[in-house]
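Subject: Sanity check before I submit

Could someone independently write out the structure tokens for this chain? I want to compare against mine line by line before I put it in a report. The sequence has 300 residues.
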Amino acid sequence: MSLMLLDSASLWYRAYFGMPDTLTSPSGAPVNAIRGFLDMTSRLVLKYRPNRLVACLEGDWRPSWRVELFPDYKVDRLDDEGQEEEPDTLSPQIPVLLEVIDALGLPLLGVDDYEADDLIATLSVTQMGPIRIVTGDRDLFQLVDDQRDVKVVYLAKGFANHDLVDLNWISNKYDIPGDRYDLFAMIRGDSSDGLPGIKGIGEKGAADIAKHFASLPDVIAAAKKEDDRLSANHRKKLLDSIDYALIAPKLVKCATDVVIPNMDISIPTAPASMKRLSELKKEYGLGASIDRILNAFGWS
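---
Independent answer below. Compare away.
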């Protein structure tokens, strides 16, 4: 009863940048993100053989509650109109891709004021394992749980060279206890999301602290008590960044309490609309990619 959770935006961005822009529809419109997403999903399904699947979407890529906590959250990604910057030739492909997914009958999920990460996190703790989370985003390493068989299919190096991330992988990669990635990330920060972390403490220092403490409140309490497991330098920097440290757990951790609507997440036994798939296949020149995904699900 394996469940596959797709970080959809992560996948279509990787498809867009990984596939040539010479892939176009009969009308000349780019379809590289669409075809890359479908081809990647086909390969994932063939390899991991899930019988449940959810393509998770951004209800809001900058949730209001995170921005209230930290106004600079993802601010560097805003365009002049306050919207997320996105390649001009990617944006028109996304509605078409979502229409293809809908015609396939695959479960799609987005919830207002939550990121896809939050939906994935909630499903990862409420659904039965095994669970495979597909993403190119290391933020989701915090969800790995060997006991419940929750692993991350990490696509940073592409499908052919992807990693299946478990606690041991995290431990070997970052030299920390594998279940403390969230603490490590809170301290280290993440420039791509505009998160400063604890200023002056980099990845090495964050790893050293994560070896000795299980949570950021424990770290702050230790800094206040001049605990010798923290160097004097680290204690000072932690206390200098106390305001950020107090909000970091809620800001950085994925929400696991999103209200998910009742939905059937089983992979269907047939496409929702073969007629619509045929129309989209012809209109956008998606022939081989549609055929591959139909074959992956055993629908051809």
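---
OP: Matches mine. For the report I'm noting this point. The chain has two domains: 3-166+255-296, 178-252.
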